[in-house]
Amino acid sequence: MQTPAKYKILVVDDDPDIVELLQYNLEKEGYEVAHAQNGQVALDVAKKFLPDIILLDVMMPVMDGITACRQLREKPKFKDTHILFLTARSEEFSEVAAFDAGADDFIVKPIKPRALISRLAAYKRRDTGQDSEQTQVIEIGGLRIDRTSFIVHKGEQKITLPKKEFELLSFLATTPNKVFSRDELLNNVWGSDVFVIARTVDVHIRKVREKIGEDQIKTIKGVGYKFNTD
After folding, report:
1. Which of 22, 114, 101 is nearest to 58 (CA)?
2. Closest by CA position to 163, among listed 113, 227, 112, 99
3. Closest by Cα among 82, 93, 126 to 195
4. C-beta separation of 10 from 55 below 8 A
5. CB count in 10 Å sphere of residue 176
6. What are the structural domains, with CATH classification, of the chain?
7. CB atoms inside a 10 Å sphere around CB 45
8. Helix (H, G, I), strand (E, B), or coil: what is residue 152?
9. What is residue 1's predicted lDDT score, i.e. its pLDDT?
């Protein structure tokens, strides 16, 4: 019998202590781990290693994380790879730029291994189809949102969204016409253990609207957003 392939994680950080900490904890959980010390090396390693998740530091020599993320997203083979940024709170200024480059998530340093393992396990469960208790297909407002393939169909058009944009749309569509504040969306889509700013929601809403149209997600001024079926 063939042994199932291990879930692969690429750790990219110029701090060897952080790399060692992450590699130890991830391998203990059964993940296959590779590492790189900057964004340029990460591009080369990723081509050969083909990770399921990339943990990417923001500030690094030679090539920073944002540039590396943008270049990875330009390659079709990494379009659906989860890219999670490792960031210090002092780097909050770069968060919107990172999401624009294609980031899925942010994890704040100093890293808490147990919280990180929990978050990575959620990505793995979703990728391996272990979250079967959730409704897998949502049909609403002229959209067909397929949670198994992460594809949105609008009529005959097939729309592929990055992971966090898809999760945001899916969350809003699950409870149509209910208004969610930015904080509620951050907690439910990004999680309470990930440090992101409220503007992150606005950036993702804008990008979702650009792809599915302006009508589905309505802004309630001073309150938040809702999936509109009116």
Report:
1. 101
2. 99
3. 93
4. yes
5. 15
6. 8-128 (3.40.50.2300), 133-227 (1.10.10.10)
7. 19
8. strand
9. 35
Mind listing the pLDDT tens digit for each residue in 22-37?
Answer: 999 999 989 999 999 9
Using the structure block, give the residue that is written with the tokens 């959209």: 143
Q: How far is CA 2 from CA 5, 6, 129, 219, in A?
A: 9, 12, 20, 51
Q: What does the block give as tokens for 142? A: 């002229």
Per-residue pLDDT at 89: 59
Which candidate, 98, 126, 226, 115, places its Cα nearest to that of 174? 226
d(C-alpha 172, C-alpha 178), whole Å? 8
CA neighbours closer than 13 Å in the CB half-sphere of residue 23: 14
pLDDT in tens, 103-114: 888 787 888 888
- For residues 128 and 217, the answer to whether their CB atoms sit within 8 Å is no
pTM: 0.61
Cβ atoms of 136 and 148 within 8 Å: the answer is yes
Could you tell me if 160 and 76 are in contact, meaning their C-beta atoms sit under 8 angstroms apart?
no
Strand, coil or helix: 57? strand
66: its two tokens: 């944002």
What residue spans of the chain are helical by DSSP H? 16-28, 39-49, 65-73, 95-101, 113-127, 163-174, 182-185, 199-212
